[in-house]
Protein: Iron-sulfur protein NUBPL
Organism: Orchesella dallaii
Amino acid sequence: METTRLSWFIMKQVLSHQRKLLLSQRLTCQISTIRHFGSESEHHGHNAINIKESSQGNTKRLTKEELEARQKAMMGRNLPKRRPVEGVKKVVLVSSGKGGVGKSTVAVNLAVGMKQLFPSKDISLLDADVFGPSLPRMMNLSGEPFLNDDNKMIPLQNYGVKCMSMGFLVSEGAPVVWRGLMVMSAIEKLVRGVAWAPSDVLFVDMPPGTGDTQLSFAQSVEVDGAIIVTTPQQVAIQDAIKGVEMFKKTNVPIIGCILNMSSYICSSCGSETKVKSNINRLTDDLSIELLGDLPLDLEVSNACDEGHPIVLDSEKHLQGRKFETIVKKITGKLNIT
Ligand SMILES: Nc1ncnc2c1ncn2[C@@H]1O[C@H](COP(=O)(O)OP(=O)(O)O)[C@@H](O)[C@H]1O
Ligand SMILES: [Mg+2]
């Protein structure tokens, strides 16, 4: 086994992977050009377009349906294929529209909580937020991963959960100034270049929004389900809906949603004040199950900052028990026994 600074290693892999992605991007461009022509012809009242069919230059008129079937076949042939993660049984994304709503807090507590409730299961946690990794602090982990004989990074481990994060590969405080293909390549490396096997469940703590990371997962990884984390406010729900729409379009099943900071617990008197919630826009309008709600509680954030997730002290803390209840619902939905 060999130890090494992994930043150069990642960069090399990232660059080689970039070439492949560039090819697939070029193809996507061609496809959208064809789409554009398709919609143009529709716009002008035609329902068929001429397409070059052979190298001899013969053309054949295609109906709209034939054109769509052809586009679908091309996309299926050339876009990255969704593949399972080696040695991982279930992949669960923890996602949100906005940042700061508690995705990382939820992801960490779900992973640690699942390990506590099902000690025989192998649970892993990937921090896919390459720009703002939270996992090292929240899981109280630091240091660079080792490489195994297959050149895969060995996850760091705490509380029985295997973890990987960009935060282990770049020094704390150093900004990651990547975009587009670089991000997608880094994600590919964090997913495929890590020795996750064996893992019964791999939780993925996603960055906010519907950007490159979300697209990478939706296009290239077999995902078993997504959990949407949101706060009660209209602006957060509005962005959560966009995330839901993206998952629906890319055929990622939605396990349910978690309403975080649904109320405020006063740290001096313990009284609870509810925050006006618009969660029904997810639960009623989009039929997404509410897996649970959590108040804004100082104990939760202190536990995060100390790298000791609150679910570890569930006998003492109500919020820890709430996380356990959510874990049980998720294991039920994923058929983990
Ligand atoms: N229920 C909660 N009660 C109190 N603080 C919380 C709660 N959920 C999250 N936080 C705190 O809010 C901050 C942002 O949470 P984080 O999980 O990093 O959000 P995200 O990953 O969505 O950006 C963190 O400091 C975390 O400790
Ligand atoms: Mg986060």
